[in-house]
Amino acid sequence: MRGHGTYVDEEKLVASVAGAVERVNKLVCVTPLKTRYNGEVGDIVVGRITEVQQKRWKVETNSRLDSVLLLSSMNLPGGELRRRSAEDELAMRDYLQEGDLISLVAVEVQSVFSDGAVSLHTRSLKYGKLGQGVLVQVSPSLVKRQKTHFHDLPCGASVILGNNGFIWIYPTPEQKDEEAGGFTTNLEPVPLSDREVISRLRNCVVALVTQKLMLFDTSILYCYEASLPHQIKDILKPEVMEEIVLETRQKLLDLEG
Amino acid sequence: MASVVLSDAEKLYIIHGVQEDLRVDGRGCEDYRCAEVETDVVSNTSGSARVKLGHTDILVGVKAEMGTPKLEKPDEGYLEFFVDCSANATPEFEGRGGEELGTEIASTLYRIFSSEGSVDLKSLCINPGEHCWVLYVDVLLLECGGNLFDAISITVKAALFNTRIPKVRVLEDEEGSKEIELSDDPYDCIRLNVEDVPCIVTLNKIGYRHVVDATLQEEACSLASLLIAITSKGALTCMKKIGKGSLDPESIFEMMETGKKVGKSLHASLQKVLDEEESLGTTRQKVGFLG
């Protein structure tokens, strides 16, 4: 039996997309390399607000349809737990405006609507509006599924690997206990040393993606270490990119072996 | 122009970064992205070139056709520019959305090439007052990744370098009617001298400093930009200010100096690449669009 995206070529069944193969008993699935994000419950996504509507926001998450963030699913400043009133509805734009970047969690089954749109919610005060940093957009199939997607890398920056392919690189915040849900954005200039780390990480992520390597905290870290002898702007040159990713691949194989 | 929406914190990060001469991808304020230049990609044109500057992808084709010279300049040929912003670049260009940008770019190109000495138009003349070569330069925007004008000017220069115009002879009959004879050898052609063809350098003002070769995100943070056309010798031929913000007259002088410096090195590296390609001749492996 054959499903969507297959065709018969000289009596053989061929998939019409190229990508990673997943086998579950007798079901063979091919996840293509370049695809839109398909929401699943429990995924962490980084999204951008595109519209402010009545009692909800529309969030762009690189999927076929814009995801929905209900006002009731969003943290209130300070972590209050109360029913959202009419004033909250009017003040929606003060919380999140068009263009803001936000990190969230995809919600329960009832939320993947029949048309495939995903409903989002903020699980705890750890999620919320993002402050200063750099966004890298990659294909969703290159982000490895892991236990945590928030990583504080030892090189001095933090990374959020969204399952939808949006990677957010930002300076590690100083105080960890003060979690306001992201409503107080830190607008102080980021020091130059942190900037260099962030730019280098950004170029490493771009290099890994160009060479089609899976993105997870270890691969990004190894790539960062391999790129240290080069200047930050040289990482994007094709020859240097290949060399760095080859070294990363070697280190990862050594780790497994 | 295609644009991205950014949050205020992201814009602040970019502006502070430019202030400290470290942009998001690690470049300094005067560094260009890696560019790929390839000529002779379209077979049925007299000359063509394709340039990929980061995410910006431009294709230019030059077609040489015979026409009548303009009345004011009977012993010169001329260039006609047409810019097509294809819907491939961004959904904003769907239908007639890209027309405004296309006419803006075309008029800028006309202005730059209208200066005396950029292209030797007298070499395009066949018969003064009657026949001349008209070069139709068609620019196609395949992908919009910031810094369109620079990429387009580089591609136009590369395409003009690659243009081969067939050699034509004019024969006169006894009655005085003129006949035009095309040379038999298909490789017998005239090449254009592109030494004085200017390249555009766009300087975007971000915060208190200016950057060269801005990405889409950086263009979203910049309110005013200066477009200057520089020849390979460092001479400034044309200047234009775009954007809704204002520029301080002193910063304009600084931007001009930076532009001249950057423009000269841009010309030098472009000429090197074009000469290298030329020297490979027919043995060159064409990457084209499937590479």
Structural commentary:
Chain B: Keywords: Acetylation, Cytoplasm, Exosome, Nucleus, RNA-binding, rRNA processing. Chain B: It is found in: Cytoplasm; Nucleus, Nucleolus. Chain B: It comes from Gallus gallus (Chicken). The complex is a heterodimer of chains A (257) and B (291). Residues 106-110 of chain A have low confidence and may be disordered. Chain A contains 5 helices and 14 strands. In chain A, helix 4 packs across helix 5 (238-256). The longest helix of chain A is centred in the C-terminal third of the chain and has 19 residues, at 192-210. Chain A is an alpha+beta fold and 257 residues long. Chain A has a 5-stranded mixed β-barrel with strand order 5-6-7-9-8. Chain B has 291 residues and is an alpha+beta fold. Chain B is 27% helix and 31% strand. Chain B has helices spanning 8-19, 99-113, 148-162, 216-221, 249-280; strands at 35-39, 47-53, 56-67, 78-85, 125-127, 131-143, 164-166, 168-172, 178-182, 189-191, 199-206, 209-212, 224-230, 236-242. In chain B, the strands form 4 sheets. In chain B, strands 1, 2, 3, 4, 5 and 6 form a 6-stranded mixed sheet that branches. The relative contact order of chain B is 0.17. At the A-B interface, helix 3 of A face helix 1 of B.
Low-confidence parts of chain B: none
Q: N-to-C terminal Cα separation of chain B, in Å? A: 28 Å
H/E element sequence of chain A? EEEEEEEHHEEEEEEEHHH
C-alpha geometry of chain A = flat
Oligomer classification: heterodimer
Helix content of chain A: 10-25%
Shape of chain B: elongated
- Provide the gyration radius of chain B in Å: 21 Å
Report the strand count of chain A: 14
Structural class category of chain A:
alpha+beta
